[in-house]
Specification:
By secondary structure, the chain is α/β, with parallel strands linked by helices. The protein contains 13 helices and twelve strands. It has a single domain, classed as Aldolase class I (TIM Barrel, Alpha-Beta Barrel). It catalyses: 2 5-aminolevulinate = porphobilinogen + 2 H2O + H(+).
Length: 368
């Protein structure tokens, strides 16, 4: 889609919402409540909405949204070794050795989980300022992908993250020059990273770096390398959030990043319209699907994206969200299973087509 058409579409959406004769008023919020789309019902007592809640069968029969294992994507942390390494800040989650990651892929197939997302805990000795390990064809995540594909084939999709933070000595998602994350040179590396990951057999490339213009460049690089069928799931609306801490512990980038932040390329939590522009640009460059990250604090963004574009839309229930619910369940403050299911259903209600969640295995065990 040409960019001209993208901006014409966004302008028409804005203009349609405000009559030309309406006086200008400074907006106080980006949230607009829609007009009630339903005809009025008979007043109480003729209408009693509790009637359809009276029994389990009628609640199931009138359910507006539902959750199944097919809605889940299971994020897995992998390390170069065998066995498992518990992640202290993610109770119940461990880094998996290569053999264990293959076993988890088989488990996903058995549970009906359609896709897994792999994140490498790279050996610190292989990290560098230029993150060259990211495009090493024999890096950890490429080797694990090949092993999984040899074991289960297309029975489960493999999604690989595209960003430099697992491989950089500074912990940033892009290359750094004079203390600044540089955009265009980073994209050159991301294209190389995407191609070696597709060569390894991954099904979906998921750029999470938030560099401007990277989706179009990655699409072109994949096509030129003969990977025209490899999907791109863009982290299109990714926020500079405080909910990522346990993830950075799991991949070993927290100490590399130190006191630095990612606010010059990830979005501010205050932004909503900007997320729509980010999504529009990524779709115009060839993204097959888009993601909102984090998830639950940004359900309004999930809903806006789905309503605006009608494209496959995913949400990431990130490590901090998971850790809070799991820890509260472990402490007995909340019913873990109940809040797990309620939180996942909330994503579907907001419009998400699927959810990346560390609860994937536990939820799938409890779903029909």
């Amino acid at each position: 889609m040409p960019l001209r058409h993208v901006f014409e579409f966004l302008d028409s959406q804005r203009c349609a919402a405000v009559p030309r004769s309406a006086p200008f008023r400074q907006p106080q919020s980006s949230v607009t409540l829609p007009a009630v789309p339903f005809p009025p019902r008979a007043p109480f007592p003729a209408t009693r909405l509790r009637r359809v809640r009276a029994h389990d069968w009628t609640r199931r029969l009138t359910r507006e949204n539902s959750l199944s294992a097919s809605d889940l994507i299971w994020p897995l942390f992998v390390f170069d070794g065998s066995g498992s390494q518990p992640v202290a800040s993610l109770p119940g989650v461990s880094r998996l050795g290569i053999r264990e990651a293959v076993a988890a892929a088989r488990r996903a197939v058995d549970l009906g989980i359609p896709a897994i997302a792999l994140f490498p805990a790279t050996d610190p000795s292989r990290k560098s300022d230029d993150a060259r390990e990211a495009f090493n064809p024999d890096n950890l995540v490429c080797r694990v992908t090949r092993e999984i594909k040899d074991a289960v084939g297309d029975a489960v999709g493999v999604i690989l993250d595209v960003a430099l933070d697992p491989y950089s000595s500074h912990g940033q998602d892009g290359l750094v020059r004079d203390g600044r994350v540089i955009n265009d040179e980073t994209i050159d590396v991301l294209c190389q990273q995407s191609v070696v990951q597709a060569d390894a057999g991954c099904d979906v490339i998921a750029p999470s770096d938030m560099m401007d213009g990277r989706i179009g460049r990655i699409r072109s690089a994949l096509d030129a390398a003969g990977h025209g069928d490899t999907q791109i799931m863009s982290y299109a609306a990714k926020y500079a959030s405080a909910f990522y801490g346990p993830f950075r512990d799991a991949v070993g980038s927290a100490s590399n990043l130190g006191a630095a932040d990612k606010k010059t390329y990830q979005q501010s939590p205050s932004q909503s319209d900007e997320a729509i522009h980010e999504v529009a640009l990524d779709l115009s460059e060839g993204a097959d699907s888009v993601m909102v990250k984090p998830g639950m604090p940004y359900l309004d963004i999930v809903a806006r994206v789905k309503q605006t574009f009608g494209v496959p839309t995913f949400a990431y229930q990130v490590s901090g969200e998971y850790a809070m619910l799991q820890a509260a369940g472990d402490a007995g403050y909340l019913d873990r299973d109940a809040v797990m299911m309620e939180s996942l259903l909330a994503f579907k209600r907001a419009g998400a087509d699927g959810i990346l969640t560390y609860f994937a295995e536990a939820a799938a065990e409890r779903l029909p």
